[in-house]
Structures are given as C-alpha cells and as structure tokens.
Amino acid sequence: MRKPVFYTAGVILLAAMTAGLSVAFQPSPQSAAAQVAQQPPSPHSGPPPGSKPPPPRVVQNPEALPVCAGGPNLASGSPPANPGFCRAPAARPGRPFNNAYPGPFTRSGIDDQAAATDWDDSGDISVTAAQAYGPYYWGGPIGTFSHYGVYAAIEVTDPDVPVCPYPCPPSNEAHYTSRVMSRALNSIPEIEIGWAEAGYDTLVAGAHPQEIFVEYATGSGARTHDWLTGYPIAPGDWIYVATVGGGGIWQAQLWWNNQWNVIRSVSFDLPTPAPREEAFGEVLSPSGLTFNASGTLDQVQVATAPGVWAQWNTALQPTDKVSCPPYAVNYGADYYWFQFYKSANVPAPCSP
Q1: Can you spell out the DSSP letters for 6-23?
Q2: In Å, how far are 44, 149, 162, 268 from 248, measured between CA atoms?
C-alpha cells in the first residue's frame, strides 16, 4: 500500500500553473505494447466460489455503527470482527473523476495528499467542474428504470495507467475505473463506488496502485471523492460493491471481512428511487494515449424495490449498451456479467 506524503496540493499546483511549469506525462514502460489490440479477457471465471455476500440494504443511523476493522480482507467464511454492518474507517480525499479540471478547490485544511479525513463530509473536496478534458472512453449497460441500488462483483486488474508525476497538470490526468453508479437522468446528482488506478495519484514513481474509491455529486455539480486506503487490493482480487437507497438517503457499501461496510451515507438531492443506473468500465486519457485497461463485472444486480434485488438481464433492458473505440465490451451474459477491454473491433465512436 502507498504511504501518504504530505503536500499543500492547492498551493503547489496553482503555483506551478501560474509559473507555467510543465510536468511531463510519463507513460509506463509497458505503454508501447499497450497500443496493440487485445482479445476479450478469457476465460470468465468469476469471483471465488462461496464468496457471494447477502444482499446489501440501507442502514439507518450509520454513524452509530461500530468502525470497520479494514486491513486485509478475510477469507470467505471467516467470522467478522463486528457482526452485522459497520462504518468505514477514515479515508484519504482525492480529485473527483469528473473529466474536468476541478480547481480551485479547498478541503477544510486537508490537502490532496493527506493521510485521512473524517468519516463524514467534513474533510472532503467540494468542487464544481469547469474545463473538460478528454478523450474519455467507457463501456457497460445504462438503464433508465427506477431503482434502489446497483450491485456487482468487480475484478481488480492492472490496467497499466500512464504515470504523471505529482503535481500533475489536470490536462494530463489519466485513470481507469470499474464501478457501479446510481444517478439522475441528467447525470447529476449521482453516487458511485468501485476501484480505480489513477496515474496522477501515484506517489511512488513507476508504481501502479489500485484503490477502492467512493464519489458522489450533488445537483449543483459539487463533488466529493475519497480513496479508501484502509482496504488494500491488488490485481487478481474481487470486490463486492453496491449503491443502495431508501428513506431519503443513499449509501455506498463494500463487502469486506465478511460484512457490509457502509463507506458513505449521504442525504442529498438524488431521489429514491433513482431513475438511472450504470455498471461500467471507463478510461480517461487526456493525452490520447490508450492503454491496456480491462476488467470484468459479474453478478450485476439492480434493486427494483427496497431490499428486492434482481439479476440485471434482458428483462431489465438497458436503454444503451455503450462501448467507445478503441475499447469494447464482451457481454457474456446480458447484463449479468461482462468484460471491458481494449480492441480494434468496436462499433462506431460514441460521444465523449
């Protein structure tokens, strides 16, 4: 796991931009090979047998829950330290995945490389998108039917995201993420949870750390983003994540140490039920360099009523099954499991 390094991010970044400092965008040594098209990842094995958790649900008054243990994930079947639900330990704030320059921003005195923030909103970013960057690629099903949550098992991979040393200009910020999301028809407000590799967030040169994250945005465009540094993951792992809504609140939850960890609980302007849902792999690569991002989402389900989870299949028809060249989606079972991968054999381009 990366070690936190303390900087005053806003001061350093703004000073560098004011001075005209140009920070080089440094592809990893594997990036040349990453230009070669791939076949769909195979075979599809899914998460380990017996690891499927009970259905998630909204927990009222989550601030009263015991703090989750975090640390390495226990083997399936091992008893949790705290039976039932728990609330996540402190997280490290990071830049939102809004495909835009997020500045200027403040974090109530907690900078971009802070070791931790409070479990509630007190230390989070609150920003509004400004200038957009691209290109931006994504793939997976989008639905526009009323729902109370989205759930999936997500494979952790090594997407070989190019590294941009700190402080990285926003125009060079590249990332890959696999996530589930509940949102409004016009995109925001929204809440999402998954894992990501962000080249601009790499603190150790040449490293490619993968981390679980949670992010949400209000209808005004203000966003918060946290890296869940207390939950170490690595390529080959599988994580179970969910958005769940009800009773006027939305929560992002993670199955860890054999219990549902309430990662984020917010009461904001996303209605319950929400009118749009997504399960996606996505790439942001402002330099135009494409890399070998891939990943599988499995056991994808949608809550059609509070506490009622249904397999996302053709009976819950999405309005769109998106893929953007040079990336594609292999729908092994619409839409219960699918694989996002890089390929030359893709449909016509979709909008950035």
Answers
A1: ---HHHHHHHHHHTT--P
A2: 38, 13, 40, 8
- Which domain CATH number covers 108? 2.60.120.700
Whole-angstrom Cα distance, residue 42 to residue 338?
A: 11
In-domain check, residue 36: no
Cα torsion through 8, 9, 10, 16, rounded to 10: 110
The domain of 68 spans 59-342
Please tell me the total count of domains within the chain. Answer: 1
pLDDT digits (tens, 9 = 90+) for 122-163: 333 333 333 344 577 888 999 999 999 999 999 999 988 887
- Residue 194 contacts residue 178 (beta carbons within 8 Å): yes
Any domain includes 24: no
Sign of the torsion formed by the C-alpha atoms of 311, 315, 317 and 322: positive
Higher model confidence: residue 30 or residue 333? Answer: 333
| pTM of the full structure | 0.79
Q: What's the rounded Cα separation, in Å, for the pair 112 and 151?
A: 29
Q: Give me the mean pLDDT over the 255-265 stretch.
A: 93
